[in-house]
Design brief:
Number of domains: 1
Order of helices and strands: EEEHEEEHEEHH
Distance between the termini: 24 Å
CATH class: Alpha Beta
Shape: globular
Structural class: alpha+beta
Largest sheet: 8 strands, mixed
CATH topology: Serine Protease, Human Cytomegalovirus Protease, Chain A
């Protein structure tokens, strides 16, 4: 069974309710014994408008809490950026929970299009999925799909550097990590 040897880069929650992070990590086995493969989201992201992928709380369709602004696959997984809507009461509560570390998970809701179960490990490798929604959750099935930090400053003076060299942000966050 393969688990990702690399922890995801630290995600951030900006003062305006913007959330960034990874909703899925390629090559990591989740608690349901699923492993999303690189490219699994490509067709769905091309076919579905970003506004048709809701941001929910706990996968509850009655609890939309924001909108996704960017969804993209990169070398690590499905990178997401969205904004909690402050006029939604649950979104304000969720922002407080995220800042306090009370609910820091990200989780995908999807329909399997193409998958294969490994005969030895029984891991289901997801080669193509139809992405339905992405939720902020208390307990994600994929341990690495979490929001880890709250960005306090409105404008990070090093933001241009981080955007240009995202792996540097990862290296800096790993170096600053207490474990």
């Amino acid at each position: 069974m393969h688990t990702s040897p690399i922890a995801p880069p630290r995600a951030a929650i900006a003062d305006d309710g913007t959330v960034e992070g990874y909703a899925s990590l390629f090559g990591a086995v989740d608690q349901a014994n699923d492993m999303v493969m690189p490219g699994a989201f490509a067709a769905s992201l091309r076919a579905r408008d970003i506004r048709r992928v809701p941001m929910l709380f706990q996968h509850d369709p009655a609890e939309p809490v924001g909108v996704w602004l960017a969804l993209e696959e990169d070398w690590l997984g499905l990178r997401v950026r969205g904004r909690l809507i402050p006029e939604v009461v649950r979104a304000r509560e969720l922002l407080a929970l995220l800042r306090a570390g009370g609910a820091d998970g990200l989780s995908i809701g999807f329909r399997t299009v193409k998958a294969r179960i490994d005969g030895k490990t029984r891991v289901r490798r997801l080669h193509q999925v139809d992405l339905w929604e992405i939720s902020l959750v208390t307990f994600p099935l994929l341990a690495g799909a979490r929001v880890h930090a709250v960005k306090r400053a409105r404008h990070d003076p090093d933001e241009r550097l981080w955007r240009k060299h995202p792996r540097l942000r990862f290296a800096m966050s790993r170096a600053a990590s207490p474990h």
